[in-house]
Structures are given as structure tokens and as C-alpha cells.
Specification:
Layout (H helix, E strand, L loop, with lengths): L3 H33 L1 E3 L11 E3 L3 H7 L4 H30 L6 H9 L6 H12 L6 H8 L7 H4 L1 H26 L3 H9 L4 H12 L1 H15 L4 H5 L10 H12 L2 H25 L7
Antiparallel strand pairs: 1-2
Helix pairs in contact: 1-14, 2-14, 3-8, 3-11, 3-13, 8-11, 11-14, 13-14
């Protein structure tokens, strides 16, 4: 049992890391809140002393009053929801497949997980130039082979293309977490259900899937945190055109167009609010599995 002295020593050793972490989070957040109430135009040559005029909630009203605000929120939620569904369904199927004994199982697992270690910019460029190019892309040649007209992926199916690229990036992460959950399942339960004559679908639905619920909750929570700030894939492929402009990309675009850091900071506050709303919703609906 830890004594009062050992607990005090542990707190003292953890204090520098806690202070550094709080500073890492609170300082940018405080500056964002501060600039969101200011007209800060450093890119136009304004000095800090003359370019920090107080404007109150003008930046917030301008940002939310933009015709692109609500479509960007909808695009963000659509990408997040679609990627979560795809990665969870395919992640479960791949995890079940990789759990089966096969020749070269270790190599296959490495190949399946490897896309997760590719930088988002690089993967977006690979998909854009190697797969989705309407002239020289692999998909274009495949379409021509079957006598079909090649698809202009990034213009005709822009949102689907973004969802496909991002799902390809995050599928290995979901597969790895879900595979770990499957491997931690007690094999005696499956053997007993098999001896009792339970069909494979019932074994999956009543034994395997409930056991994976906590891992699925972890996948949803972690992926949502990162997917809400998706930017690189859109910047490299569509540039926010054809309905693929997310809230993060809209903030970037507004800062470049108006060169107003205050306006972008107000957009950042809206992004924080959206992320917290989604996080609270997920913690109430999905996060309950973590306590089981």
C-alpha cells in the first residue's frame, strides 16, 4: 500500500509533465480566444500595436454567417460518420480473417497495417495520381478494360473519393485494435458454443461481437478526434471544391482570403465547440462500453 510520502513523491515527479501539458493546451487555446475578439491583420503589414482592434463578436457573426459554414459542418460530419462505419465494418471482417491460421500470417498482417504509417499527404497524392487519375490511373485502365467510361473521381465523386482515401488510411488502425480484442477472447467459450451446436453467425453475434465492443468504442473515440480535423487529404486532392470543404479547411481558407487571424480564430473556437459536442455525444452513447 502506498504511503503518504510515496504519493507526495509521485505527485512531485509528475508535476513538471502536468504543467508542460497544461501549458501546451491552455496557451494556444487562450491565444485563440483572445485573437477571436480582435481584428488582427499581420499579413497585411499591420503591426501588433496597431492591428489588434477590439471587434467583440464580429468575427463570430461573420464566420457563422458565411454561406459555407453549415455546408462545411455537414461535410465534416458526413466524412467522420462514413469513415467510422467503413473502418468498423471492414475492420471487424479483416480482424476475423487475420485471426485465422494461414501461410505467411505475419507478413500479411504487416501489409494490412502498413497504410497507417503513410503520411496523409503522401497517401492522398498516391490515390490522386496513381489510382484516381482519369487518364493514367489504375481505376481508369480498369474501367477501360471493361468498356466503361473512366470516372472523374475528384470532381464527379469528390466526397466519395475523400471518404475512400481517409478510410484506407484508418482501416489498419481499426483492424489492429479489433484484432487484439479478438485474440484476447477465451477460446474455451467458442469451443463450448461450437460443441453445443451453435452456428457460426450466432457465435459471432453473441460471443465475439460483444467481446469486441470495448475495442470498437476505443476505435470510434480515437478516430473521431483525428477525423474532425481532417485537412491534408482535402488540400492535396480537391482543394475544398465540389462540396468537400470541411470546417477545418474553411478556417484555413477564410484566413487566406481575408488575411484576418481573428476571423480564423473565431472559426477555431467553433471547431472546438463542434468537437466537444461530438465528444460528449460519443462518450454518452459509445463510451459506456468502456465501463463494462
Amino acid at each position: 500500500m502506498a504511503t503518504q510520502h510515496s504519493r507526495s513523491a509521485a505527485r512531485l515527479m509528475l508535476a513538471p509533465a502536468v504543467v508542460l501539458l497544461l501549458g501546451w493546451m491552455l496557451v494556444p487555446l487562450t491565444m485563440t480566444l483572445y485573437f477571436s475578439f480582435k481584428k488582427y491583420l499581420p499579413l497585411r503589414g499591420d503591426t501588433i500595436s496597431g492591428g489588434l482592434d477590439w471587434v467583440g463578436f464580429e468575427n463570430y457573426s461573420r464566420f457563422i454567417g458565411s454561406s459555407a459554414f453549415w455546408p462545411s459542418v455537414q461535410a465534416t460530419l458526413l466524412i467522420v460518420g462514413s469513415v467510422l462505419v467503413i473502418t468498423l465494418v471492414l475492420g471487424v471482417l479483416l480482424a476475423l480473417l487475420l485471426d485465422q491460421p494461414m501461410w505467411g500470417q505475419g507478413i500479411v498482417r504487416i501489409l494490412v497495417i502498413s497504410p497507417f504509417f503513410v503520411m496523409p499527404t503522401v497517401s492522398a497524392l498516391v490515390w490522386k495520381n496513381m489510382f484516381m487519375d482519369p487518364v493514367n490511373g489504375i481505376l481508369a485502365h480498369l474501367w477501360n478494360f471493361f468498356g466503361a467510361e473512366p470516372v472523374q473521381w475528384l470532381s464527379q465523386a469528390s466526397m466519395e473519393s475523400i471518404i475512400l482515401i481517409v478510410s484506407w488510411q484508418w482501416l489498419p488502425f481499426a483492424t489492429l485494435i479489433l484484432l487484439t480484442a479478438i485474440q484476447s477472447l477465451d477460446s474455451e467459450q467458442l469451443e463450448a458454443s461450437e460443441m453445443d451446436g451453435a452456428p457460426i453467425l450466432k457465435r459471432f453475434w453473441f460471443i465475439i461481437l460483444p467481446h469486441m465492443s470495448r475495442a470498437m468504442a476505443v476505435v470510434i473515440l480515437i478516430q473521431t478526434i483525428f477525423l474532425l480535423s481532417i485537412f491534408a487529404e482535402i488540400f492535396v486532392t480537391t482543394g475544398g471544391a465540389f462540396g468537400t470543404k470541411t470546417l477545418t479547411y474553411l478556417i484555413f481558407q477564410r484566413v487566406l482570403e481575408s488575411q484576418n487571424i481573428g476571423l480564423g480564430s473565431a472559426g477555431g473556437v467553433y471547431a472546438i465547440i463542434l468537437a466537444n459536442i461530438v465528444a460528449i455525444f460519443l462518450m454518452r452513447i459509445v463510451g459506456k462500453n468502456l465501463d463494462k
